[in-house]
Design goal:
Structural class: alpha+beta
CATH architecture: 4-Layer Sandwich
Helix content: 25-40%
CATH class: Alpha Beta
Order of helices and strands: EEEHEEEEHHEEHHEHEHEEEEEEEH
Largest sheet: 5 strands, antiparallel
Strand content: 15-25%
CATH topology: Chorismate synthase, AroC fold
Distance between the termini: 35 Å
Bound molecules: flavin mononucleotide
Radius of gyration: 21 Å
Length: 366
């Protein structure tokens, strides 16, 4: 089990969906860093359940209790630990899932890996709820990045087959990204909200769920962050993005579509603008050779349809060793995408903190 990430911004997350509490420990925050708890609470509220019709009706405030590492509003430099209590569990909803494996969920794979000792209530450690500590860590990371002039934001790029307008990858304003963070359903084209919500409602009415895509960007990232090969920006950021449950694909810049292009349409022509090197296009999503090139980092993450659905599905019963069927009751997100927007931003923030601290430590050694 790998519950930890990073060598500089060292993050450990822990907990189960229906245990007493979930939380995280971060080691590596420089002593004296001011931490704004109200900003952390704002990000937690963006992910919290029960606040939007596209989300589960499980209502939990997701208030973080910081139990160490913060004194008089500043990081002490020792591990920062935050706890989030699980206050609204209904474990009875999960009784049949001890035996019957949910298709598309982690029940079977987790049962095999942990020999049946894993906590199955509410999905245990595989629950989307464990992204709450990730958002807490992301909110901290964002504050470190903001002090360096870096802003991160994201929007719902698609729900089902309904797409929002894309970000302009060359010119993304920090204030536009921050404005997106203020919406529970962040879109660049507000006219897309009604059809997207209708798609979620239609799936729910069909006892089904729907997936989508989140587009995320970071601006203000200086050129020269990251390393070739194993420490590449894409690989470090992807590791965090693929740690988010339900993320099944990640692309940077033009992503999969770049394979159909010619170099003349995929290269980012360069020029001097006010004495600074910049690119006229951003097909490479702000990263070349695994290293930032000063353009906005632009990525997309595909989020699958919520696996727990009420529609009858074929599965197996591990108690009786028989084939069976399953209709899943309980409170589930009919669409994960809106709640996952801040989770994707958080994953990028944590990865960028790690990469920037790695750069700083390498420089210190030179
Ligand atoms: C914010 C968030 C909320 C989620 N809510 C649910 C949910 O209500 N029901 C569910 O079955 N899966 C939900 N998931 C997804 C499952 O946790 C995930 O599909 C499962 O652990 C299997 O992992 P995989 O999809 O990465 O293979 C959620 C994921 C996230 C990020």
């Amino acid at each position: 089990m790998r519950g930890s990430f990073g060598q500089h911004f060292r993050l450990t997350i822990f907990g189960e969906s229906h245990g007493d509490a979930i939380g995280m420990v971060i080691d590596g925050i420089p002593a004296g860093t001011p931490l704004d708890e109200a900003a952390i609470a704002r990000d937690m509220a963006r992910r919290a359940p029960g606040l939007d019709p596209t989300a589960t009706s499980r209502k939990e405030p997701d208030r973080v209790r910081i139990v160490s590492g913060l004194f008089e509003g500043r990081a002490t430099g020792t591990p920062l630990c935050g706890l989030i209590e699980n206050t609204n569990t209904r474990s009875g909803d999960y009784a049949q899932l001890r035996a019957k494996m949910r298709p598309g969920h982690a029940d079977y794979a987790g049962h095999v890996k942990y020999g049946g000792y894993n906590d199955p209530r509410g999905g245990g450690h595989f629950s989307g709820r464990i992204t709450a500590p990730l958002v807490f860590a992301g909110a901290v990371a964002r504050q470190l990045l903001a002090a360096k002039g870096i802003a991160i934001g994201a929007h719902i790029a698609a729900i089902g087959d309904i797409a929002d307008d894309p970000l302009d990858p060359v010119c993304i304003r920090a204030d536009a990204l921050i404005r997106l963070q203020q919406s529970r359903f962040p879109l660049l084209n507000p006219a897309k909200e009604a059809p997207m919500r209708a798609a979620v409602e239609a799936a729910k009415a069909d006892l089904d769920s729907v997936g989508g895509v989140i587009e995320c960007a970071a601006v203000g990232v200086p050129a020269g962050i990251g390393s070739p090969f194993f420490g590449s920006v894409e690989s470090v950021v992807s590791q965090l993005l693929f740690s988010v449950p339900a993320v099944k694909a990640v692309e940077f810049g033009d992503g999969m579509a770049i394979a159909q292009k010619r170099a003349s349409d995929a290269n980012d022509a360069m020029h001097y603008e006010n004495g600074c090197v910049t690119c006229l296009t951003n097909h490479n999503g702000g990263v070349t050779g695994g290293i930032t090139n000063g353009m906005p980092i632009v990525l997309r993450a595909a989020v699958k349809p919520t696996p727990s659905i009420a529609r009858v599905q074929q599965t197996v019963d591990l108690m009786t060793a028989e084939n069976t069927t399953l209709s899943i009751a309980g409170r589930h997100d009919p669409c994960i995408v809106p709640r996952a927007v801040v989770v994707i931003e958080s994953a990028l923030a944590i990865a960028l903190c790690e990469l920037m601290m790695d750069n700083a430590s390498t420089r210190a050694m030179q």
